[in-house]
Amino acid sequence: MTVHSPLRTEFPGRPEPAERTPTPTRPAWRRRLTRADEKASPYLYVSPFFILFGLVGLFPLVYTAYVSVHEWNLIGGEGDFVGLKNYTDVLAQPYFWNALRNTISIFLLSSVPQIILALLIAAALDSGLRARTFWRMGVLLPYVVAPVAVALIFSNLFGDKFGLFNHLLGLVGLDPIQWHKDVLPSHVAIATMVNFRWTGYNALIFLAAMQAIPRDYYEAAMIDGAGRIRTFFSITIPQLRATIIFVVITSTIGGLQIFDEPRMYDTAGMGGADRQWQTLTLYLYHLGWTQKNFGRASAVAWMLFLIVVVFAVINFLVTRRISSKGSR
Amino acid sequence: MRIVRRTQASPTAYVFLLIVLLASAFPLWWSYVIGSKDAAAIVRDPYSLVPGGHFLENASRVATSIPFWKAMGNSVLVSTVVAFSVVLLSTLAGFAFAKLRFRGRAGLLVFVIATMAVPTQLGIVPLFIVMAKLGWIGSLGAVIVPSLVNAFGVFWMTQYLGEALPDELIEASRVDGASTLRTFWSVALPAARPGAAMLGLFTFIATWTNFFWPFIILDPGNPTLPVALQQLQAAYYVDYSLVLAGVVLAAIPLLIVFAVAGRQLVSGIMQGAVKG
């Protein structure tokens, strides 16, 4: 097995004998100190996380709700309480609904093919290859390229006039695609960037889970005459249920907040001339830092928060359903 | 049967993975190809896959067009400080969660895990307001401080120490009269080293590639690398050889990390998957 964690058996830092307390009975103050140490230390050690999470995680999220019910300008600061006006204003904007559609479209185009491809790659990596470390590292290479860099490279490859991909389409006699003009092609281009960076990473997660499946399951299936494809669908997929749910949830949380790739797909960063690929986070940024309207930006942030939660729950239910169906 | 399966990788698997590998490496290669051409070469033969031999020239133009070296220094500083802090504070908390007994331990740990699913990025508006109040806008501290420790790190080290550090060692250290902090420092920390190294590696990469918050909070004159790349694109978007030379330059440090520690990254992801 390749999945193991090294177990240290030596005593790495056992105190030197000279430092030991020589007497078996310690003075009372010393015992009390030890008790206090053992009681308080754990809280002290976990406190940095909770303090920091409170300050930069929880407080901002709650405070976002406060900002969202006020008139609030980036420069002028807090204004009057306006109730739900920022929400109704945003919901009345066609750009909000456009951004929501774009976000979901890009999310689906990046997560569904990505998970299918990652499962296939994992299955190939799990098939007893020679030089397996080489292949595993190879699929992980894109992970170390920053999303901003990925976006710059792909926006060149997907160039409308002189891009390599349109050139290749031309070679096989197809018309060029307007990757930066048309809605769906721009979503495909941005989803391709996401898939480029994360497919290999997720394949390794699936690979680890596949290796944890007991091999006699496959033996039994083969004796029953099941082929490779059959065992993949009847054993591998159902056994990977928990892992698939984990990957789907994490890619939902990240995917619905996508910013880097659409921001860098052109220079203006508005999500296209007609906002063909403006996502919700891009819209949030635009409201807050271009229009300097923090109230509306916060309203979008809160709605996006709810959308993420709803999607995560739906995904959890759907993936659980699909993968348990496979086992029947 | 097991052995049969192990040796049976089909040619299809190799061909498929070779295609995946080429697709993984091609965009980087393409970036170098364009980044090493001059304007004339791009016009003459825009689709040639052969590099042009002007990379150093383009790279030095990048360095004069944007504060590239400052950005590189900032990225090194921010990523290193964040990685060290995350490792230290996560190991400390992981040690407490995995090996010490205290009231509310289980509940607090569940809370930590639950926070991993919270999209904290959506709190940026108040975070920006707070940073403005503190006068931190444009400073690296505004990028570093919010990242000093995170739920994933705490969870990871809790899992790791739970397995890698036998309870007997803690007990022995206590019997010897060592304080909790002493036990942490000389027993837990050494045992945590392999897991901590992986956590440090992933934190470094995540911080290095982070864009959204630094882009909002940092000034153009004092950027990290991804923010500097955005400036390069905004100013020289017509000159792709310049932009993609910058992309290659900015990618080099992490490519070195990958070459040195790629194996650790692979096993880190696979271990995390099994435990998570």
UniProtKB/TrEMBL annotation, chain A:
Instruction: Specify whether Cell membrane is a keyword of the entry.
Output: yes
The record's section on InterPro entries has: ABC_transporter_permease (IPR051393), MetI-like (IPR000515), MetI-like_sf (IPR035906)
Specify whether Membrane is a keyword of the entry.
Answer: yes
Q: Name one GO cellular component term.
A: plasma membrane
Q: Which domain of life is it from?
A: Bacteria
Domain named ABC transmembrane type-1 is located at: 100-315
Q: Which GO terms describe its biological process?
A: transmembrane transport
**UniProt xrefs under Pfam families:** BPD_transp_1
**Which subcellular locations apply to this protein?**
Cell membrane
Membrane topology label:
Multi-pass membrane protein
Report the CDD domains cross-referenced here: TM_PBP2
Swiss-Prot/TrEMBL keywords? Cell membrane, Membrane, Transmembrane, Transmembrane helix, Transport
Q: Which residues cross the membrane?
A: 40-63, 104-125, 137-158, 198-218, 239-259, 299-318
Q: Where is this region: Disordered?
A: 1-27
Question: What family is reported?
Answer: Belongs to the binding-protein-dependent transport system permease family.
Record's protein name: ABC transporter permease
| Source organism | Intrasporangium oryzae NRRL B-24470
